[in-house]
Amino acid sequence: MKRRGFLLLACGQPLFLTEGRAATGSGSWTAPPRFTRPDEASDEGGLWAMMDREETKVRRSPFLLRDAALREYLQGIVNKLAGEHAADMRVYPVRTPHFNASMAPNGMMQVWSGLLLRVDNEAQLAAVLGHEIAHYLQRHSIERLRDLKARSAFGLFFGMLGVVGLVGQLANTAGAFGFSRDHEREADAIGLSLMRQAGYDTREAAKVWDNLRAEVQASYGGDPSKSSPMFATHPASEERSSTLSALSADDSGGFVGSAEFNQKLASLQRAMLDDELRRGQFGPTLVLLERLIARDPGRSELLYFRGEARRLRAGPGDHDLALADFVRAQELGHEPPEVHRSLGYLFKQRDDIESARAAFVRYLERAPTAADSAMIKSFL
């Protein structure tokens, strides 16, 4: 499966099912009974069958994070939140450096690595997963698709293509447009109720949107709708943060799970940060790294990534700040070998040939089989 097709698929599968009605603020919410598989002759059944086929592609995708411990951890959070419905849900962590999670009508949930990199603890992760579960429990996707069908020429396509063909059209449309903002607001409120019922600290939910707002304001002229389709269709982060804060105002504690979350992500975060840097969106990346460094100031790896983001952005003063980060990373110890390569590039650019040479030699000593070793040797 090609990456572009995979990403489109991933963006387009937040979907359906209905009964439990509107969530309320500080009160509990009662989920509907488990759903039964719809008749395949119906539009809902055809959509479900198509998602089954797409789930097979996700399982085979090279972007799937095949980390059994992580997947078990994510499934455990879903089990806490979804109650009896968890038996119908399967979680797939996917390696792509953007903030997103989605839920298909057949119970397939995708959690992107960019989301895992950006939440601070298990409670914040539970807030996002609870939101997706709420879309599933309220069958928002089928409501959305039927609404689109009622308001457009899908009836003509139905006659020409039959149920299965129409389902494909509708699913793609759902992926393109997402849920209505009212659906998103309802999912936020229900997700918070699910968090509360599972014993999580609901006050963490608003912080997810505060952190995202800080990132998007650092790019695209501060217009979040230009950075992600999610921000184009969801209520503004300010509104979500404010609403979630109000809904959790009467709560006084609960499980946060910082240590548990950090332990599960420790072996994966380096690859996630590499992917983040490759996005080339250095403003938001630097906001993210400032937050990670504030949380763990003695970690030389984070200083490397902040320095590298500044070196690559190459704005006024960036190279001096990058140099300071690389030097500090060395002082802390356990710095990645790439710190020395980046120092070599900085010195080379400043025509400090001897310092550049020493740094490149140190890099090759630390990473003799690196993919770029032949190129680095050509600098010596």
UniProtKB/TrEMBL annotation:
| Pfam families found in the cross-reference section | Peptidase_M48 (PF01435)
Q: Keyword annotations for this protein?
A: Hydrolase, Metal-binding, Metalloprotease, Protease, TPR repeat, Zinc
Cofactor: binding details: Binds 1 zinc ion per subunit.
Q: TPR repeats at which positions?
A: 337-370
Q: Which GO terms describe its biological process?
A: proteolysis involved in protein catabolic process
Identify the residues that the record assigns to the Peptidase M48 domain, covering every copy: 72-246
What GO cellular component entries does it have?
membrane
**UniProt-recorded Gene Ontology molecular function terms:** metal ion binding; metalloendopeptidase activity
Q: Which SUPFAM superfamilies match?
A: TPR-like
Chain spans, region Disordered:
22-43, 220-239
Report which superkingdom the organism of origin falls in: Bacteria
List, separated by semicolons, the cofactors it needs: Zn(2+)
Q: Which family does it belong to?
A: Belongs to the peptidase M48 family.
Q: What is this protein called?
A: Peptidase M48 domain-containing protein
Which species does this protein come from? Kinneretia aquatilis
Supply the source organism's classification.
Bacteria, Pseudomonadati, Pseudomonadota, Betaproteobacteria, Burkholderiales
